[in-house]
Amino acid sequence: MGRVRRMLIVDGYTDEPAGLGVPPYLDVYAREAYGALKLVDSSNEAYYLTIDEVRKDWVGYAELTKKVDLVLVIAGALVPGKYLGGEPLRSPQEFERLKFLSSAPVALAGPAASFGLGGTGGSVSSEVEADYRIRGRVAHWVYEAALWGPESASDALWIDNYALVDKALIRGSEVVKQHPNYKVGNLTVELETYSGCARSVGGGCSFCLAPLKGRPVQRDVRKIVEEVEALYKFGVRSFRLGRQSDILVYGSPDLGTEEWPRPSPLALRRLFQGIRSVAPSLITLHIDNVNPGTISRWPEESELALKEIVRWHTPGDVAAMGIESVDPRVVKINNLKVLLDDALVAIRIVNKVGRNRGWNGLPHLLPGINFIAGLPGESKETWEYNKALLDRIEEEGLLVRRVNLRKLSLLPGTQAYSLTKKVVVSKGYEGFRKYVMKWQERMLKKVVPPGTVLRNLVVEKVEKGVSYARQPASYPLTVEIVKPLPVGSWITAVVKRAHSRSVLAELR
Ligand code: SF4
């Protein structure tokens, strides 16, 4: 086929350890693809539909495919979970339907291009066939497909510089106007600061794909700020600095050479201050992953770096820590980051810097804890170690915004995949899961006690007379209001009672 001049992007949503693209979040893929097409020729056209929009109108989708040279499907929700804002494209059958109804060739991008569809925690994905599979940076592939045609587009797996991606992301910011959450005003755009993980130097964690991306490559702070400026001009008001393995080491001169880079508070100040200067009335500026091992190894520098974040961000932020397990045997076999005492150091420091309450009702910055079940080396003792960590946190009066306990996703190419072909969760898992639920309920009562006023909530769903609202945020708290309210409305509510993962509230 000839050059691609018209393209339909179908966003089947992505959820990766470093990158969230389920509405109201928009990850980099669609922006890169849109921008790359326009960079080649500004008269090229790109349409954007979410998979939920396609599901509502399959006939309209089929008609639109007649007008384009290529359908680009983005998919790959690698992290299992239910989402309030949309249902990811997970089933191979649904992807087959997209292909069957399309008059144009179909390309697949995002994690699904490498790992298939259908895999959730504890299972392996199944491969899917597409006319083209884009496993590398989508900007590069689309750029070449627009120049020479898809047959000649190379799938450069990983990049060693951001030259084209930077330009594509800035040019592609325009695609936000076609996103359903754009009009609501809660569209939250995922920002990337670097690729890969510092720990690739030492092999990285057994289950993780990030070390396979090679040594980290950093984006120039000016390009990130330029991208935010472009997005802000189009009306985006919420930003999530989530596309990197550890925000604390962005800008560190050691990133790429050391397994545990020393954080650079100055680099973070430039980044956050730069964003604020071009987006003065933003509603949300949040982070995502923070490596607890960075904080425990560099406590003073990390504290200063966290202070910079809290100085410029918006409240309700979460430093998501992939602790995974503090069982020494599991930590060793899987090359994890911290043992119990080091995890506590990290949680204490984040509390020290971030636990003050902010204007939107939530503490400024709290830790989030991720545990993984089914890692090689796990035994029934594993749950005792993890439980001991939670107990210590509670005894010390520390706050944690949320705990995620998920089953291992076995991904080909990872160390865990070569260590085990089947995810086996040890005895005692169910008891630990229930313990975590109860623990979270007690914790959430402290994080949002009755009477807390939560501002800037957006009603995202109404079901059986209950409205579900969330603030635009990195890890938003779900607020239930027993009253049907217009979807998309912005409200203020007062907390009545906390459950384990949500709160019951009344309109203010
Ligand atoms: S620290 Fe481990 S889990 Fe986190 S990105 Fe690096 S290798 Fe992956």
TrEMBL record:
Q: Name one GO molecular function term.
A: catalytic activity
Domain of life where this protein originates: Archaea
Identify the InterPro entries for this entry: Elp3/MiaA/NifB-like_rSAM, rSAM, rSAM_sf
Domain Radical SAM core: residue ranges: 183-446
According to UniProt, the name of this protein is Radical SAM domain protein
